[in-house]
Design a protein that fits this description.
Helices cover 33% and strands 16% of the residues. The chain has a five-stranded mixed beta sheet with strand order 18-17-19-14-20. Strands 1-12-11-10 form a four-stranded mixed beta sheet, with no helix packed on it. Strands 4-5-7-6 form a four-stranded antiparallel beta sheet, with helices on one face.
Length: 661
């Protein structure tokens, strides 16, 4: 080879690398797979939204966490769903049901719900069905799903999370459970006395007493029909050398989307369910919705997008970065984490308006009042805090909840006075909790009356030690632990935080091995019973983690749960609140309110107070999104030119030197 050609080759290789780097930079850094095109050549509309973790299960009759529900609520469809545009006066409307259930009072004091379902509704196509084609949904599918809720072997060592609610009212539910538990397996050919098939499209549920809240349960994924073929097919066994998923990782429903691909700890893709042809965008909204453009898609077939892509991103800051680059369409629940990170202050001014920078970008902001409560629960079986009401009152009185909210959430959250959040019937904004005053003098007096003057444990002569069990979520949990230490030092009590993993805290709660632990509850349905049950002694640990037990509270709860919203019901709720705050089985932390954000190219993208089946209504302008992504992710040419200069300065002298050699 000619020496001149050799030199040119040696120089060309790094220069080629430089050119490649320049091209790569110019092409951008798109982090997700290409959306592709539809069969007609149009670009597929994909909604991009991050999840904090993998769903724990996508089994409709088991799942009971926010992440799992965010995915599953858009794969399945229950009997009823919440009206999408009715956010202030939250109501349910028929989904798979053919009209509202007929409620009939019986002579024995019970009540019967007669439910008709729509005809010719198909499950999504899936290999579990004959020829891979989804079959028609019948009343048998709903009865099968109800039996799964009452199956004690479905989720060892307990059944479905809503089993305690339904077994209290559905006749024969407990008997079905007990028989299956005694046998060690569940015989699905056995009937439930209170669940009756009328015909192919009609079934009845017989209750031992009126229960108005049943309509809300029928709007949850628990009441979504589950095809027995899917449960049988997805058994986790190996067929022809390939292991199938278990059903909890491969749900089959009749919702707007179906599961496309799930790469554990990486991403979840949902694709459009072509059999979902019976729902359209609502034509009636709240006052102002027309002007806000929320009725522009009225009457259009759902879903409005072709799919959903959920990247799994565990921290809020990387999600915010992806959002700023235009790769995330809406933050959704990730807005919750922005308040504690200080990001909100960059986006929203003190007046609550977007800053000029983000107004220019066209970012859409939303202030969300979540129907939920966060609190510290005392273990009422603990020999120290459980047996000493004055001690619990003292700790509740010493806790400065507003200071915590100001320090950790920039003052955006609300300090609770009762267990019922704003927006739920029974909330009284004028009520003040007598033990939530953050009064140190009163707290010290209560501590003295509890037998711990100046915080000293008479048995040891040292400061009383109280252990707080917290699920560890990185630095924020450590800061929270330090806050608790400092908070109760003021009255002489020593707090020892115990930071544990999610699986560990589940074991701690199940076995009752804690003194105080952090709990959070988001509304399943917009009724006070859904919050009052958190202190009902007959509810399981999924609800009443601290095993609070007050017979009078229980008696009032049994009355309240079967009542409609009347002044009489409100009076009983007020009595329950007074009992609860006097017993102090919990220390209120906050009602959650937060800002969340959506991109300029999105429509109909707001947070519903209850529903998670909202992705079918959202819409993206793919052309505008592409334009903004290119605008916001321009290559740094200064960096490329500088790098070129460095490489040129290094490569050419080296090459010439080798030529001379």
């Amino acid at each position: 080879m000619n020496i001149k050609n050799l030199v040119s080759v040696k120089i060309a290789r790094p220069i080629s690398a430089l050119i490649g780097l320049s091209l790569l930079t110019a092409c951008g850094n798109y982090p997700f797979p290409s959306a592709g095109v539809n069969t007609d050549g149009s670009p597929r509309r994909i909604w991009y939204q991050a999840l904090q973790e993998d769903p724990r299960t996508l089994d409709p009759q088991i799942q009971y966490d926010n992440v799992s529900n965010t995915v599953l609520a858009n794969i399945t469809v229950p009997l009823y769903e919440y009206s999408f545009l009715q956010r202030e006066n939250v109501t349910v409307e028929p989904a798979l049901a053919d009209g509202l259930a007929l409620r009939t009072r019986r002579a024995d004091g019970g009540e019967t719900y007669t439910i008709k379902i729509k005809k010719n509704i198909l499950f999504a196509d899936d290999p579990c069905f004959k020829n891979g084609q989804g079959r028609e949904i019948t009343s048998d599918d709903f009865i099968y799903s109800l039996k799964r809720i009452a199956d004690p072997n479905l989720k060892n060592p307990t059944s479905s999370p809503i089993f305690p609610n339904l077994t209290a009212v559905i006749i024969g539910f407990q008997e079905f459970y007990d028989q299956a538990k005694a046998a060690g397996k569940t015989d699905y050919s056995q009937s439930i006395k209170g669940v009756e098939k009328v015909d192919r499209y009609t079934f009845r549920i017989h209750l031992n007493s009126p229960y108005p809240q049943l309509k809300y349960f029928m709007a949850m994924t628990f009441f979504a029909p589950t095809p027995i073929e899917a449960v049988t097919y997805y058994d986790g066994a190996i067929y022809d050398g390939v292991r199938r998923d278990t059903f909890k990782f491969h749900p089959v429903g009749a919702g707007p989307y179906k599961l496309g691909r799930w790469q554990r700890n990486q991403s979840i893709e949902l694709v459009k369910n072509e059999n979902y042809t019976f729902r359209t965008y609502p034509t009636v909204g709240q006052p102002g919705d027309q002007k806000a453009g929320l009725l522009a898609d009225a009457g259009k077939p759902l879903p409005l997008n072709d799919g959903v892509y959920f990247p799994i991103v565990r921290e809020s800051i990387p999600v915010w970065t992806l959002f700023r680059q235009g790769y995330i369409d809406g933050l959704g629940d990730y807005g919750r984490g922005l308040a504690s990170s200080g990001t909100v202050q960059q986006v929203v001014s003190s007046s609550g308006d977007l800053t000029p920078e983000f107004q220019k970008l066209g970012i859409k902001s939303e202030f969300v009042s979540r129907l939920g409560l966060f609190y510290y629960a005392f273990n009422l079986k603990d020999p120290v805090v459980g047996k000493n009401k004055k001690l619990r009152q003292a700790l509740a009185m010493a806790y400065t909840g507003q200071r915590y909210i100001d320090l950790f959430y920039d003052g955006t959250y609300l300090k609770p006075e009762t267990i019922i959040p704003p927006g739920i019937y029974g909330h009284d904004k004028s009520y003040k909790n007598p033990y939530g005053l953050a009064n140190l003098d009163q707290a010290k007096q209560l501590l003295k009356e509890a037998g711990y003057a100046n915080g000293i444990d008479p048995k040891t002569g040292k400061p009383l030690v109280i252990e707080f069990v917290l699920q560890f979520n990185g630095p924020p949990t450590q800061r929270q632990a330090q806050f608790l230490i400092q908070e109760f030092q003021k009255i002489g009590v020593k707090v020892e935080p115990k930071l544990v993993t999610f699986s560990e805290i589940q074991d701690v709660l199940k076995k009752g091995r804690f003194q105080v632990t952090l709990r959070g509850w988001l509304a399943d349905y917009p009724d006070p019973e859904n919050f009052l049950i958190l202190m009902y002694s007959k509810a399981g640990t999924d609800y009443n983690a601290g095993a609070y037990n007050n017979p009078e509270y229980d008696r009032l709860f049994d009355q309240v749960k079967i009542m409609e919203n009347t002044p009489e019901r409100k009076a009983l709720i007020d009595k329950m609140i007074n009992i609860l705050n006097e017993d102090a089985p919990l220390v209120y932390m906050y009602f959650e309110t937060y800002y969340t954000f959506n991109q300029s190219w999105t429509d109909n993208a707001f947070q519903h107070p209850i529903s998670r089946s909202t992705l079918q209504y959202r819409k993206v302008d793919t052309q505008l999104r592409t334009e903004k992504q290119q605008e916001w992710n321009q290559p740094n040419l200064i960096y490329v030119i500088a790098l070129a200069g460095v490489l040129t300065a290094v490569v050419i002298p080296v090459a010439l030197n080798r030529r001379n050699e």
